[in-house]
Design a protein that fits this description.
The structure holds 2 protein chains of 2 kinds. Chain A is an alpha/beta fold. Helix content of chain A is 38%, strand content 14%. An 8-stranded mixed beta sheet of chain A has the order 1-2-4-3-5-8-6-7, sandwiched between helices. Chain B contains 3 helices and 10 strands; from the N terminus they run E-H-E-E-E-E-H-E-H-E-E-E-E. The C terminus of chain B is likely disordered. Helix content of chain B is 20%, strand content 39%. The chains are: A alpha/beta, B alpha+beta. At the A-B interface, loops of A face helix 1, strand 2 and strand 7 of B. Chain B: Keywords: Protease inhibitor, Repeat. Chain B: InterPro entries: CYSTATIN_LXN, Cystatin_sf, Latexin.
């Protein structure tokens, strides 16, 4: 419990500092054997290469990208995010993206890296994106389940590992690991400990995107078949607009719906947890394919997959940004509606929950 | 019970179509033909008293070998009543497999006879150099070009198991051929031993089977035996010095 508290405070500090312009970890001794301008975004990278890449991205983009360690895993690895945003005199909103909750879904961390690369490549010339970065900080965690991801890289026999690497007391080898995407809700009780620690960033998170594979789906809350999100219609419209945009890239069809409609009922997913805490827009991307290759998506499909997923994420981010800042939405087919009272009412306390729960889940 | 219209994009329709996909691959799969559901177009469900749950689905299929559209199919998939739910962590209990009737337009318009005959002759004449490979595809999704027909063959063989093991609460895909060995054959069919890893989407479990399958162009793919592999034979003790380590694999 003591560990939970300190880890939660770490993240808490992150969010508290973000409004006051405090400096983030400066990377001074990044490994030089991996050059950022030659980084290959169309291959899968092991954990250490991704960490080095993160350090180099921070170093190459001062004032735009910073990194923060916001938790430690069961095996003592850092969980690190990149924060991307332009300086602003007014308080900024936030968008969250995590990849690599499930170790074997290698395309997800590949996409988070691609996503960062595309933003950095285009933000100077893309006025819309530039505006987003002035209004919003985007928090990207390329690999959340660091232990599991490392484990999946050991050899062929560990490649299909899904969960964390926390040990069970059961003398049964099937009991290794916690499924991070089934235990967000379960951790709520522990998270509540920190409820009083932070209230000033309430409702500032606009959007929560969690990236997975496979199945070509865009999932909206909730996973429980009998619970409907108060803004379900709007979530579906935004998701369908994203899927339509993605189809325009390489013709790939992504199905949009709640998990109990299009996949299976589940509980404890980070997507549901995010929506429950009051974040109005929360989506799970299940990237390519539909099962022919599954988790072993060939590397030649990394580029096309990321291209279409970027367009989908961009579609959602554009919508939530324009809505929050009262701009005419760029996706004309998606009408702007006012946030529901329920969403606003539960909007408080999100950041403490987000911060602490992620750290909590990682420690299990 | 009346006939219920299902939303084609929702999972009940998708799972029924996936069962039909496995059925089609048991019938038509080969080293050069591996059928995949492309899109479910319509689906209905009817509970038939004392018989089970009957799905009727229409769907488009593509050939996973050529990546070309392979036409339209309509299938009736009956999941027998009183089925025993499969529990992937334990030995799968015997359940009555789904019964499938399926008809397709243009399914076999791609003629693969020439390629199949050439591969058959190659594998048959190379009796001294039998196929022996593992990890298809590898961790990075790579498959050596000469192994692609073997992957498709393993996919067709796996469909026999995935069809038999399917029920309304499963969605199976082939995750990997962990191992494939060509065995010496006493007749004109070629014999293969496969160790396959199947991914069951609903439980998110990886399930391991050993299959012995035969193939020749005239008779297609047949599975002669299939043996479920207990999970713990493939467990690996993690390389950390944890005091909570599990028992090593036997």
């Amino acid at each position: 419990m003591a560990m939970l508290g300190s880890a939660g405070l770490l993240v808490l500090a992150l969010f508290l500092q973000s409004g006051s312009g405090a400096s983030y970890r400066a990377v001074e001794n990044g490994q030089q054997d991996l050059q950022l301008d030659k980084y290959n975004y169309t291959t899968y990278h092991p954990m250490d290469e991704i960490f080095t890449w993160m350090e180099q991205v921070v170093k190459a983009n001062p004032g735009l990208v910073s990194s923060q360690v916001y938790g430690q895993t069961y095996e003592g690895n850092n969980i690190t995010l990149l924060k991307i945003g332009l300086e602003s005199s007014s308080r900024k909103k936030a968008i969250w993206m995590d990849c690599g909750i499930h170790a074997r879904e290698w395309i997800a961390p590949a996409f988070c890296q691609w996503f960062v690369k595309e933003i950095l490549r285009t933000y100077k010339t893309d006025e819309r994106l530039n505006l987003v970065l002035r209004n919003v900080d985007i928090y990207v965690t390329p690999v959340l389940n660091v232990d599991g991801y490392r484990y999946s890289w050991i050899n062929e026999s560990t490649r299909l590992w899904r969960k964390t690497r926390s040990a069970s007391r059961e003398a049964d080898c099937t009991c290794y690991g916690t499924d991070l995407n089934r235990n967000f809700y379960a951790n709520w009780g522990m998270v509540g400990i920190s409820r009083n620690c932070l209230q000033q960033r309430a409702e500032d998170i606009l959007c929560f995107l969690t990236i997975h594979s496979y199945g070509q789906l865009i999932l909206v809350p909730y996973g429980h078949p009998q619970i409907s999100a108060p803004n379900y219609d709007e979530l579906m419209r935004v998701g369908l607009a994203a899927a339509e945009a993605m189809k325009g890239v390489h013709g790939m069809v992504y199905t949009v719906g709640t998990s109990p409609d299009v996949l299976y009922p589940n509980s404890g997913s980070s997507r549901d947890w995010a929506r429950l805490t009051g974040i109005p827009f929360s989506f799970t991307f299940e990237l390519r394919d539909k099962g022919q290759h599954g988790f072993r998506l060939p590397e030649e499909q990394i580029g096309p997959t990321c291209e279409e997923a970027y367009v989908g994420a961009r579609s959602i981010i554009g919508y939530v940004h324009d809505k929050a800042f009262n701009l005419t939405t760029t996706t004309a087919t998606v009408p702007v509606t006012t946030p529901s009272a329920a969403a606003a009412a539960t909007g408080a306390l999100w950041s403490a929950l987000l911060a602490c729960s992620l750290a909590t889940a990682a420690l299990l | 019970m009346p006939v219920v219209q299902l939303v084609p994009g929702h999972y009940p329709a998708r799972r029924a179509a996936q069962v039909a996909q496995h059925y089609l691959n048991t019938q038509h799969g080969s080293p050069y033909r591996w059928l995949q559901v492309e899109r479910v177009l319509s689906a209905t469900l009817e509970e038939v008293a004392d018989k089970g749950m009957k799905y009727n689905v229409t769907f488009s299929v593509k050939d996973g070998v050529s990546e070309k559209s392979a036409g339209m199919c309509s299938a009736e998939v009956m999941f027998p009543a009183n089925e025993v739910q499969s529990l992937p962590l334990q030995a799968p209990p015997s359940q009555a497999p789904p019964q499938v009737h399926c008809s397709c337009e243009d399914l076999l318009k791609t003629n693969t006879t020439v390629e199949e005959d050439a591969l058959y002759q190659h594998l048959k004449s190379n009796a001294s150099v039998l196929v022996d490979a593992q990890y298809i595809p590898d961790s990075f999704g790579y498959i050596a070009p000469e192994m692609r027909p073997i992957w498709h063959l393993g996919g067709a063989a796996s469909s026999f198991v995935m069809l038999k093991e399917s029920n309304e609460n499963t969605l199976y895909n082939l995750a990997q051929l962990a191992n494939v060995t060509q065995l010496e054959s006493q007749n004109d069919t070629l014999l293969f031993q496969f160790h396959v890893l199947l991914h069951e989407m609903v439980s998110q479990e990886i399930i391991s089977w050993k299959l012995q399958a035969s193939w020749c162009p005239a008779e297609g793919v047949r599975v002669l035996s299939a043996e479920w592999q207990p999970k713990c034979h493939h467990c690996v003790v993690p390389p950390t010095n944890t005091t909570l380590a599990t028992t090593p694999p036997s």
